[in-house]
């Protein structure tokens, strides 16, 4: 591809070949912003204004440990993760305004009922900074009543245009979010009168503006974001409760329903007195949580005898069907989480799964028949058939869910992930998957739950391969060893594809950061020299929009060609950039003395050696290297009498290495510096 073709493709965002999952991620990101900032308040009771009026000292709680008047609000998630929202703006009046806005982003206080996660609160709270930059400071305003009154439609649209043209990640979309949220709250009188922005939402939130924000998000989106460790923990805990603890009890309930209640297909029955047996079975609790339940009411009736006497008596009316259906859906949603983690299937592929697709071989292993829509090459064919392996525990759980639906009162037993609730069979199953994911998010307090994020999370965990991640992955896949898990994954094209995509993204983003820094000067290392020399031959390909496209395509090409590419951050401002094959007789410095040899040897950034030829040192590392030199010099000065000759030589070598990198950083930061004047650190053997 020549430079003109590169330029043509880079100028048109829609022309860049894009993973379908990336498009879906961008769409989901926009709709989250839109849903969080738009809506109508149905119940204004218990509003912030009422609390402020009742407590002028502002000492009412915004969390279990923070009050409204605090400079930061602390939240603790279900998994114990600490989330902190800080109010640090120095703009006069800003803290009062931003507190009122951010208060309404807390899950318990969100007026539209769509924010579920404290992590979302903290993330979107940063949008207030963009009001500082693009609205107030840019126009010489403060965040008080007088300044807010002079804000106009034109001023806001110009601010949005500046944020769009600036091209900094999230500035445009987050400014759009916080402005529309501010206007929505103001229009519904959720804010103090002096802080309301009296601007018609229709003047800002136009069709062209929404399209522009969507396009910007699409251009910035690299794909689905993985779940945090706390979020994944909550999701897995939820899934395992319903599939491992609740499911066995529900199967007992299912057997009781078929045996005792099968004649009551409408889920309604009457008893002359309380049915203790039925109440004990349907009212079973697991870990203090009701897993099914029932509804009951005591009714009065009268009977007129043949002699004319009027007799009154009580009877009990029971309804159980809806409670049982909800229990089925809870188990189904737990299975949906596990299937998303273990299979890596997309929404469209999950939605078509039927119980008949779960197969048990003669050897006792489970597999799943799937239709892979994305890989189909024939536009006239609706997907490609494939079979992927299933861990035994998941195969057994799917069989349990099928049995749970098998009651004479119809529970829709065809598709695995079809809801048991409602009167109609779902016609658009992908939408049913989305609704289930929303319910899962509500249950665990996580925003943006989607099958793609599970696959992305597992891919991230696999490529990082920390000890904790290895144990967690082994547990998730139900295997005794990590090796067994890798064998399973090697047979699953969905997860393999996600891992490959994740590695490409990681390498490309790191390499983009390196190239951008080297272009700007202030770098050190043989690898950095090679990079500078390479893009110096064709500088047009490494400018503006072309930089990201060129590097992404280059990394993808190298990986697909089987080249030994390895690019990873070792510490602040220090990267490992390697393109060598390694063996026991040819090891990088970071692997010498570490005998834990894998099938494919790669550098170990956690043990990075600054004298390695693969090191790229950027300006960010300067401060830490200066501290290193001071530390080593003090060590020599204070403990020289106690140090062995070998230890003293090693410390002096470390001082030399750090000083040489610092010298190179300074030298390359000067325009026109001679490359021949540079020296590279060499390790004394």
Molecular structure report:
The model is unreliable at 1-19 and 672-685 (pLDDT under 50). This protein has 25 helices and 14 strands. It has 685 residues and is of the alpha+beta class. It starts with a helix and ends in a 17-residue tail after the last helix. Helix 12 (229-260) crosses helix 16 and helix 21 packs across helix 23. A hairpin with a 5-residue loop joins strand 1 (72-76) and strand 2. The radius of gyration is 31 Å and the shape is globular. It has helices at 3-11, 20-37, 48-54, 94-103, 118-125, 127-136, 145-149, 153-166, 171-187, 201-204, 207-220, 229-260, 276-282, 321-343, 347-351, 392-405, 429-444, 451-464, 467-476, 482-490, 493-520, 526-537, 544-560, 622-639, 645-668, and strands at 72-76, 82-86, 268-271, 285-286, 289-290, 295-304, 310-319, 358-360, 366-372, 384-390, 523-524, 566-571, 574-578, 615-618. The strands form 5 sheets. It has a 4-stranded antiparallel sheet with strand order 11-14-13-12. A 3-stranded antiparallel sheet has the order 3-7-6. The chain has 3 domains: 20-220, no CATH class; 328-491, hpI Integrase, Chain A (Orthogonal Bundle); 496-677, no CATH class.
